[in-house]
Amino acid sequence: xxxxxxxxxxxxxxxxxxxxxxxxxxxxxxxxxxxxxxxxxxxxxxxxxxxxxxxxxxxxxxxxxxxxxxxxxxxxxxxxxxxxxxxxxxxxxxxxxxxxxxxxxxxxxxxxxxxxxxxxxxxxxxxxxxxxxxxxxxxxxxxxxxxxxxxxxxxxxxxxxxxxxxxxxxxxxxxxxxxxxxxxxxxxxxxxxxxxxxxxxxxxxxxxxxxxxxxxxxxxxxxxxxxxxxxxxxxxxxxxxxxxxxxxxxxxxxxxxxxxxxxxxxxxxxxxxxxxxxxxxxxxxxxxxxxxxxxxxxxxxxxxxxxxxxxxxxxxxxxxxxxxxxxxxxxxxxxxxxxxxxxxxxxxxxxxxxxxxxxxxxxxxxxxxxxxxxxxxxxxxxxxxxxxxxxxxxxxxxxx
Length: 400
Description:
Layout: H1 15-28, E1 34-35, H2 47-58, H3 71-85, E2 94-97, H4 100-111, E3 117-122, H5 127-134, E4 138-143, H6 154-160, E5 165-171, H7 183-194, E6 200-204, H8 220-223, E7 231-236, E8 249-252, H9 255-266, H10 274-285, H11 289-309, E9 325-326, H12 347-358, E10 360-361, E11 363-364, E12 374-377, H13 382-397
Parallel strand pairs: 1-10, 3-4, 3-5, 5-6, 6-7
Antiparallel strand pairs: 2-8, 7-8, 9-12, 11-12
Helix pairs in contact: 2-10, 3-10, 4-5, 4-9, 6-7, 11-13
C-alpha cells in the first residue's frame, strides 16, 4: 500500500523557502552569499509590541484561547477595518489564524469542491495555486503583463471567468511584483465581478501599509460595497509591523464563511499563539508612526535597486507602488551564456548561475507563474543591496 496521498503529488514545496534555505546552506559552508529571497522586513518588531507580549506572559495569558482569536483582538481588527478601510464588521465576522497563509488555506478548504475554479492573477505568490490544488480545486492563471505594470486588466479577468469559477484571489500591493492597483484600476475589476454574482473575492491585503509615492491603497469591498457580502478580506501583522515570526493573520467576511473556517481550524491547529495575539492587539491599537518611518527606508531601497537594475542591458525593472519586491524582466538575456559557461535558457537557469557564480540569491520568475523574470526582496540593508546589484550588473555584463 502506498504511504503518501495522491493529493501530495499535486503540489510542490515553496520555491521561496527553497532559495532561502539554499542561500543559508552556502553561507554556512563559508561562501559569501547575499540572500534576496526572503519576504521579510529586516526591522525589529517595535518595542511596544514586544512589551505587550512580555506583559501577557507575566499575566499568565499562556493558556488555550478561543479557536480563532481572543475577543480583544477581534474587536481591534474590527476597529482597524473601520479606521483604515471604511469596512464594517462584527467580531463574529472575524477570524484569526496562524499567519495569513493559514487563513487563506482555511477559506479554500472550507469552500472548494472538486472541479471548482479559482482565478489567480500571475505573477502570483507561490502558495496560491498549491493551496487551491490541496483543496481539490483548479487554479486558473490569468497572466498580467510587463506592459501593464504586472496588473490584470478587466478584459483579462473577464476572459478567465467560467460558470465553475468560485473565487478570485486578489493581492495588492503584490508579492512578487510590488504592483498596486489604484481605485480606478480596481473599480474596473470589481465591475467585472459584479457581472458574475457566483464568484467570491479573496483579497490578500498583507502589504496594505507598504505603499510609496502618491499610491493610495484600497481594497475591493471598499471600492465596490455591493461585494461586501461575498468578499473575504485577509490581512495580518507580519509585514507592516515586522512580526513575521509571531504568526498572526486575520480576515473578515460573511459569518457563515467565518464559521466554516473556524471549523477547519478547530480540527487542525486550534488557536493561534496566545502571546502573539496579545502582541497583535497592541500592534493594531498602539502607535502607528513607525510605519511611515520604515516606508521611507523601503522607498529609498526600492529606488536604489530599480535604478541599478534598469542600467543593465536586457533587463527591464518596473518601479513598484508598494510591498518590498521588484520583479525585473530578463527577456533580453535569454539564450546567452554566462562567464562561467552556464547556458541561460530560462529564468531558473539565470537564478542558478547567478547564485553559483556571484553568491546572489534571487527567486526565479517561473515560481511566480510569469517568465522570464526574477524577484528581489529589498527588505535588507542598503549596503547589501548595493553590493548585490553590483554583482548582478557584473554577471549580466559577462553574458555572451
